[in-house]
Amino acid sequence: MSGEKKQKPRPPQEEGVVLTPEQLKRRRARSIAIASVLGFLALLFYVVTIVKLGPNVLHRPL
Amino acid sequence: MSDERASLTGPDPYAMASGGVASAGVAAGEGHAAPRDYFELLKPRVMSLVIFTALVGLVRAPGDVHPVIAFTALLCIAVGAGASGALNMWWDADIDAVMARTRGRPVPSGRVTGQEALAFGLTLSAFSVVVLGLLVNALSGALLAFTIFFYVVIYTMWLKRSTSQNIVIGGAAGAFPPLVAWAAASGTVSLEPVLLFAIIFFWTPPHFWALALYRADDYARAGVPMLPVTAGPDETRLQILLYTLFLVPLAASPAFLGYAGLAYGAVSVLAGAWMIVLAVRVFRVREGEAAVKAAKGLFGFSIVYLFALFATLLGEAVISGLLR
What we know:
The structure holds two protein chains of two kinds.
Chain A: H1 21-53
Chain B: H1 2-9, H2 13-24, H3 35-41, H4 44-60, H5 67-91, H6 93-98, H7 114-135, H8 138-162, H9 166-186, H10 191-214, H11 216-222, H12 227-230, H13 233-256, H14 262-284, H15 288-323
Keywords (chain A): Cell cycle, Cell division, Membrane, Transmembrane, Transmembrane helix
Transmembrane segments (chain A): 32-53
Protein name (chain A): Cell division septal protein FtsQ
């Protein structure tokens, strides 16, 4: 038993699709574009709500 | 429908364009497109013309619309137009792949898959219509929905491949934006925006047929029954001339009906006269390089003509707004 050498665990093999650096760059660019659009829409909906309702935004039945 | 598409274009280039290319080259397609590829799906050059004509409808409509609401309306109209472009590129990938002018588009070149273009177009269509309907008004939302439906289903899926009158009827889709914008600003539709619609509607055939005259081989190869392919170049030249003779007085009519001022009257008459000169030249010069040059000249000037008409309408509205 004592003579048995404990083997070092091997690093896990990469499985599935491995993206190339170019693909990773494009994915990052798409993520930034989607985040920008979502941020812009949140701002737009906020501003339009204020424009359409004005101070009445606070006057609503509870 | 898919059988008909395949028979028009030979050995299934559609499947290749919408899936085969991408699966063969993972690096290019299948979820790895850059944002600019998606932006290209929106047909930005067409979109810029849509924004411009919609802006004219928005500015000339009666009533005061808040700048933020006006901006929202323009944005929705632009995105709706872009979504139509994306859906058009999804459906027409087989045609685009065999035409020199369009084979570099994102779907036929394999940078975006057909399914991605479809999902992108559908999402943006739904979003633009719902946002316009909820944030601006229901009438403009409904008109935008109809415009997208008309362009994608009536023109792209049906007329484009089945009749040489495709761009005559399909031209209505490109003519709707000022009407939608007018409805967004005023909540109604009257004769003036219908005239704006009619000007673009009757401008479309001579504009596109001038292009089709010197791109007839491309259209024939793709199986698109454009007028020069089905009826020949001589009949196309006659139709161009007739449409231009109808268009020019129609385009001048807002000035005579009191909707537009002297500047518009002058521009529409002078630029219209030049349109007629160019259409006559296309009609008379039928052979060789000079005929191609005449068609290119009319195609190029038709863009300037429409731009001049709408820019003058815009300028007049802005100046009268400043003087008020």
